[in-house]
Design brief:
The protein has three domains: 3-237, Rossmann fold, CATH 3.40.50.300; 242-334 and 421-505, Rossmann fold (3-Layer(aba) Sandwich), CATH 3.40.50.300; 345-419, no CATH class. Helices cover 33% and strands 26% of the residues. The chain contains 17 helices and 22 strands.
Length: 505
């Protein structure tokens, strides 16, 4: 197979962190090549070097056999390399067409460029089954369509090789399936796709070859058809990984959380949470399943005090915390919250890790008095929590933005889970997290349950919901469609997620 991309002896350091160690990798033309590895293994750094965000300290890049210098993303695009980032690089108030054209206007006058781009965008969208309205405002589109805009943007600029960084982290199962069909079409038409992901089943489903990275090095290369999920998992973490959740039956105690007829309406008067009632007891995990955008996020916001309910009650340990409408007061009552969106809600990217690891708990007396924090105690706490949750690198002074997505998630989980809450609310606990860390996080959640804590879990990963939950609630269009046990099959849960309820029949 003719190489589309060759990375030869790529080496990159960030201070004391050796992110890439003499990495050599060949990507075949017209193939889908997976790159997997634990959080902090160096995958995103390597691809950022290929796309010109970072300069390698040593090494060579070849495109179609020719050595090239890539010092910026413009250089990468000029050599036919496009990238779709984990967190999209789109301008929300702009239309789809304006976003696609941005940076490739081709002259002083925008009118002719837009007219030409419209026809090309229509052609690309049709050719690759990525229909999207060119005049739609990007910020109003669901994430699945925003991702299509990112791909179309890269193709419009002439990308022959497309890098996708954790592309399904924000997608529903149906959107992920559609993305894989798009990638298959791209491959069939001779394009090359590099797929960075933690999800081994996705690797098995769509890739032709897969490279495994560990601690900055490529440790294994596999032809996908000749390997297995188990072999890949072991290569990733360097040990045998338990791919199922091992837990004993729950022994629920008294009710900790009692949600009664809860409704929350948005500014347009639409009920995003519609007359929802349920309980969570000590020593149990209640999972909420549903396709993203069906009220789960809004429900968590109300329970955690971020927004006030329009009507109904949130009774936590006998107190109606819904009337507080204040996350600080809710935390003081003994509730911890891992938000779904770690970038905007979970941490402050410009803060160093030690500061992000006390957010929400910074008023605790053991960290200082009044307005003055004891810096030494803050640092000591961060070091302890980083060690407990294997945050890499274990550097409390590193800016939060510099950690990989999975390690950012570990920082937030460590902060909330080690606060010893009576109720833990977790939104998407393992989004963008590698398989070794998933195993670790699942064990931690189970251990918390076994200590008698109450846990409310929201995840778009059905496998995760089914394996962790003692009871499963399914939400659709703001309503709870039904409750099932962990033994419920995927089809039954899928029907409830689509709004088809036997309970209502």
């Amino acid at each position: 197979m003719t190489p589309a991309i060759e990375l030869i002896g790529i080496d990159k350091r960030f201070g004391s962190v050796h992110a890439n160690k003499d990495v050599t990798l060949t990507i075949g033309q017209g193939s889908i090549h997976g790159i997997i590895g634990e959080n902090g293994a160096g995958k995103s750094t390597l691809m950022s070097i290929l796309f010109g965000f970072y300069a390698a300290d040593k090494g060579e890049i070849r495109v179609k056999g020719q050595p090239v210098k890539i010092k910026s993303s413009s250089d990468a695009i000029a050599h036919g390399i496009g990238m779709v980032h984990q967190h999209f690089m789109l301008v929300d108030p702009f239309t789809v067409l304006e976003n696609v054209v941005l940076g490739a206007e081709g002259g002083a006058l925008i009118g002719p460029a837009l007219a030409k781009a419209r026809s090309e965008l229509t052609r690309l969208a049709h050719e690759y089954e990525m229909d999207v309205d060119p005049d739609a405002i990007v910020g109003e589109l669901p994430v699945g369509l925003q991702q299509r805009v990112e791909i179309l943007k890269a193709l419009f600029k002439g990308a022959e090789t497309l890098i996708l960084d954790e592309p399904t982290g924000v997608l529903t199962p149906d959107e992920a399936d559609h993305l894989f069909r798009i990638l298959g079409t791209l491959r069939d038409q001779g394009k090359t796709v590099i797929l960075i992901t933690h999800k081994l089943r996705e690797i098995m489903a769509i890739t032709d070859h897969v490279a495994v990275m560990r601690r900055g090095e490529v440790v294994s290369n596999f032809e996908t058809a000749k390997t297995s999920v188990e072999e890949l998992a072991e290569a990733m973490v360097g040990r045998h990984v338990l791919l199922r959740v091992d837990k004993s039956p729950a022994t629920p105690g008294e009710v900790v959380l009692d949600v009664k007829s809860l409704t929350w309406k948005d500014k347009k008067g639409i009920a995003r949470v519609d007359n929802v009632s349920f309980t969570v007891r000590k020593g149990e995990i209640v999972g909420i399943a549903g396709v993203s955008g069906n009220g789960q996020s809004e429900l968590l916001d109300v329970i955690s005090g971020i927004t006030r309910p329009t009507s109904g009650q949130v009774i936590f340990e006998g107190k109606d915390i819904g009337v507080l409408g204040d996350p600080a007061h809710v935390r003081d009552e003994g509730l911890a919250h891992v938000p779904e969106d770690r970038q905007h809600r979970g941490l402050i990217k410009s803060f160093d890790a030690s500061e992000s690891m006390i957010l929400g708990w910074h008023r605790q007396e053991e960290l200082g008095h009044g307005f003055r924090l004891d810096r030494a105690k803050v640092i000591a706490r961060a070091r302890s929590e980083m060690k407990a949750f294997d945050v890499r690198p274990p550097d409390p002074f590193l800016k939060s933005a510099k950690f990989s997505g999975g390690n950012q998630q570990k920082i937030i989980l460590a902060r909330e889970m080690l606060a010893n809450p009576d109720l833990l609310i977790v939104g998407q606990p393992t989004r963008g997290v590698d398989i070794g860390a998933i195993e670790f996080i699942h064990k931690r959640i189970i251990a918390l349950r076994d200590q008698g804590k109450a846990i409310l879990l929201v995840s778009v990963e059905l496998d995760e919901i089914r394996s962790l939950s003692d009871r499963i609630l399914v939400m659709f269009a703001g309503k709870v469609m039904g409750e099932r046990g962990p033994g419920a099959d995927e089809r039954e849960l899928g029907l409830l997620m689509a709004g088809v309820s036997k309970d209502a029949a």
